[in-house]
Design goal:
Blueprint (H helix, E strand, L loop, with lengths): L15 E4 L2 E4 L8 H46 L3 H4 L5 H13 L5 H13 L12 H7 L5 H14 L3 H9 L2 H7 L3 H13 L12 H7 L11 H16 L4 E11 L4 E10 L4 E8 L5 H17 L9 E7 L4 E6 L5 H11 L3 H23 L2
Parallel strand pairs: 5-6
Antiparallel strand pairs: 1-2, 3-4, 4-5, 6-7
Helix pairs in contact: 1-4, 3-4, 8-9, 11-14
């Protein structure tokens, strides 16, 4: 006697199932076309991988925030530990940075250690931290003097899922302060929302976050910030200057240099032992702006203040711009250093014309190679 067919259970009718904490949609129906089935599979895999990456980012963010909070606590407690420890004074953070950078990289330089100390002082209760926020969020929040403002921005950023750029925008427009003072709070909130809509709404790029890469100790973090064209040009320019045979020694690539409020990354840093000076190179692949010129001048000034030794000559910067319309090369020296640049530096450094020709030639080669690669 044939067995009766049992009706499918409610569980079997579910369109998705839970796997390792991730939602995986059910398999495609038999009547679907092959193209529809493929598209559905692709959608499933994208969701799976996207969810996994988001979970990984969240996990690393939370661990990094907790670690940096604890680092700040240890530093504060050490500084409060009596006359013997207090004797280190202002030397403490530079001394710690020297040791920690050697072990764990630029993420533990004196500037970041200062932020970690401020972080603990601004948020002394670790359990009150919002795990939805990353270290860059908290670095921004430590700049606020008022505790009520810090707490409000922290909770609002977590609740509204603000990116670090969104948080910076809202703080910069004094959103919280204007809400307190305004009688028309709805209008203020609508304006703030409009400001956020102008920002890039794309997901945070895990592999393009230098703070996270430094925390994880991944090599070549800076190189991941560059596009294919920028990467290729940096490779060629680095080789070009070293092959000149005029005293260039490579120092760093995508070297971070920090102010109290912001981090900057210099594309290439050399030391010229004939001129006894640092040479900074910044590359742009879009039309040159006054802001770019001012930024290079700032790099030169900061490098003179932070890196230049007593026996070193003034730092020189080279701003390179390679756009599809033109190649631009501009040297940058601080006011007062023009004479030494004209009389000595120009005898050793490549001319603007030489650099412009090299930049144009390299860019044409790279664009051609990229086009051929796209064509298969």
């Amino acid at each position: 006697m044939a067995k009766k067919a049992h009706p499918k259970s409610a569980d079997s009718k579910k369109e998705s199932k839970e796997t390792a904490g991730l939602t995986v949609p059910a398999a495609s129906a038999p009547e679907e076309t092959s193209q529809t089935a493929f598209d559905h599979l692709l959608s499933q895999l994208r969701q799976l991988i996207g969810d996994a990456r988001n979970r990984a980012v969240r996990a690393v963010d939370e661990i990094q925030v907790q670690t940096n909070w604890s680092v700040g606590r240890y530093i504060v407690e050490f500084e409060q530990g009596g006359a013997v420890r207090a004797a280190y004074g202002k030397r403490l953070l530079p001394l710690l940075a020297e040791k920690l950078k050697a072990d764990y990289g630029q993420g533990y330089d004196a500037s970041n250690l200062r932020y970690m100390r401020l972080f603990y002082q601004a948020f002394p209760i670790r359990d009150a931290l919002r795990h939805e926020l990353c270290w860059t969020h908290y670095r921004l929040l430590t700049k606020l003097d008022r505790e009520d403002a810090r707490q409000w921005y922290m909770n609002e950023a977590a609740t509204q899922n603000w990116s670090t750029r969104a948080l910076q925008r809202q703080m910069g427009t004094l959103y919280y302060e204007r809400l307190l003072l305004s009688k028309d709070k709805v209008a203020v909130a609508q304006e703030a929302q409009h400001n956020l809509e102008q920002l890039d709404a794309g997901p945070r790029a895990f592999l393009r976050d230098p703070m996270m890469l430094e925390f994880l100790g991944l090599p070549g973090a800076g190189a991941l910030l560059e596009s294919s064209l920028e990467q290729g040009l940096m490779d060629k320019l680095q080789a070009f200057l070293l092959e000149l045979g005029k005293g260039f020694a490579f120092v760093a690539r995508q070297q971070r240099i920090s102010t109290e409020s912001k981090d900057f990354y210099i594309d290439l840093v050399f030391y010229n032992y004939l001129l006894k000076c640092f040479v900074l190179i910044d590359l742009k692949t879009q039309e040159l702006s006054h802001q770019d010129i001012g930024q290079m001048d700032m790099y030169v000034r900061m490098y003179d203040d932070l890196k230049r030794g007593e026996s070193d000559n003034p730092t020189v910067g080279i701003l390179l711009c390679e756009s599809k319309d033109q190649s631009v090369v501009r040297y940058s020296v601080l006011h007062g250093s023009e004479q030494i640049f004209a009389s000595r530096y120009k005898l050793v450094l490549p001319s603007e014309d030489d650099l412009r020709a090299e930049l144009k030639r390299d860019a044409e080669e790279i664009r051609l190679a990229m086009k051929l690669k796209e064509q298969g």
